[in-house]
Amino acid sequence: MGNKASVRDVVTTAYQADRDEGSYLPPLDLVKYFNAESRKAALETKIKDGDDLATPLIVAARDGKLDVVKFLLRYEANIEGRGTIKIYGQVIEDCTALWVAAAKGHFDVVRLLIEQNAEVDRRTSNDSTPLRAAVFDGHLDIVRYLVENGADVNARNNFNGTPLMLACHNGHLDVASYLVEHGASINLQDNDGYSCLHYASKQGHVLLVCRLLALGAKQTQTPDRLTPLLDASNDCKIEMVECFIKRPECSKEQRIDALELLGATIANDSKAYDIEKAFSFMKRGMEERYEDPSCPLLKKKMEPVEAYQNRTESQTLEELSLLEGDNHAIQMEGLMIRERILGTDNTILRYPIRYRGAVLADCKKYELCVGLWTRAMEIAMNCNVPKTKELEDLTDLFAHMIQKGHSLSSQTIENIFEKLIDGKRKLSEKLKSGELEEEQKNEAQETLLFNALYLLVMYTKVQVSSEMKNGNMIDLLQRFLCLEPRTRDGNTLLHLAAWHKTPVPRDTVANWRGVCELPCVMTMKLILHAGCDVNSVNAQGNTPLHLAVTFVPEPEQVEILKEMLELLLDLGADTKLVDKNGQTVMDCCETDDARCILSAKGRLGAMNIEAGKVRKVRF
């Protein structure tokens, strides 16, 4: 007995019997009649069940079938064989029978496998060990047994997490205590800088936090400068903050920062917002500062920020009391407090700033909103965030303001465009250093480029045409073009402005209707006036003119087509250039109107190019 079909049939029948009747030992008993080669094949055949794909031994270990595990091991099933198992909603690849048994809490199976010399620290594809698997669901008996048999209590997974961190995240006080008592390092940090104390605090496990502190856990910082205490304040976890600040190891400075950050965040948090509670925590922090009037702990003074209306943070109880009852003033105080405590180069600052700006926008206080979102964008770019949500939100807000007839100055758009240039410059530096993957690079570059286009289109809506050439936008645009921005398809700003298929933001189409309609002749003039090459080609060899002639206008849009093509031709667009398909501009024309315009202008355009008489853009 021993062909491959019969081997597969036996294993499948055994598995099905287990599912239907609770025992797959009788069918598997046939394995002992196989020759050595067929038996090995049978025991290594993987069974497919949904997301699971595993050997009979792993399946038996998963299901806690001790007799079956014994039987399979007797016939030399590979104790270190690998499989894929879905457990607790996660698909785990390259797990062993020991890992699965530990995860499912089958102590007898774990003990048998260890007695049969299963490797105690054999890792899965994401570097999870059997000990980590046992810790997840709090199987203390298995945790104890694995540690007694040499399991590494500080084994790191692919995110540098340890079993102790997992125990703290899931709130297993007994498991965490045992691990620490048996050598687990209590102050290790993972890739995000989180320690076991961070995880216990984050999940609100107060008793576990107290136990960890008693065992010597420290207030280590993440890269965002968040200790477990400040993280609790930043998450508006009042009970956890109170727990921390009552501890004898908590210094006065730590208490003050925690109380002030807690109040500042509550004042600008969408879920925890309570302005009276926010003010009360700010006040408690200030009272702590002046507990000893002869030696108060003064705040570090910060430079006023325009986005916060150039306010300065309160320095005394008297100054703070003046804010009581003024919700907006308390909210701005909160944003200033957050910058002082967390640092102005911290991306965590962005979210409350964005939320406060959104609330102001809903109240039609657009100028304040623009200031706050601009501040959040500055912080993001200073932290080298390649793609900022604030930039997209601002362009969307501008479109809404224009559509609804609200005042929007060209200077406001110029200011955001200047920030965009800074973002593009920093992105170019990151690209040169190889810090971004290809997809990240393309997405970040296109986000900046498309938003630059949208800002330019809106600029032409709010700026008087005759004044455009005198504005700062031309200088800004020249700086932007020097950075050679292109889409992944090689399209320049001019390509995008001339092409009717250039997308506008899909999620906010209502805001953009009637605001950003492409092609846009005025935007093309602006781009050309700044020096964009009229004959630049994209990855397909298309010039802006190649794309422009594909526009099929409605009757009322024919004049747009005419103005666009004449503009490009007057400025030297070469009708003889061919794309990668060997097509000239004339070959790409979608309408007779386009063909007529090209025919009428072609000869004159060629003569002008030869004579060096290409016209300058006239607004």
From TrEMBL:
ANK repeats lie at residues 52-84, 93-125, 126-158, 159-191, 192-224, 540-580. Keywords: ANK repeat, Repeat, Ubl conjugation pathway. Pfam families: Ank, Ank_2, Ank_4. The keyword Repeat applies. SMART domains: ANK. Pathway: Protein modification; protein ubiquitination. Signal peptide: none annotated. GO terms for biological process: ubiquitin-dependent protein catabolic process. SUPFAM superfamilies: Ankyrin repeat. One of its GO terms (cellular component) is ubiquitin ligase complex. InterPro entries: Ankyrin_rpt, Ankyrin_rpt-contain_sf. Belongs to the fem-1 family. This is Protein fem-1 homolog B. It comes from Pocillopora meandrina.
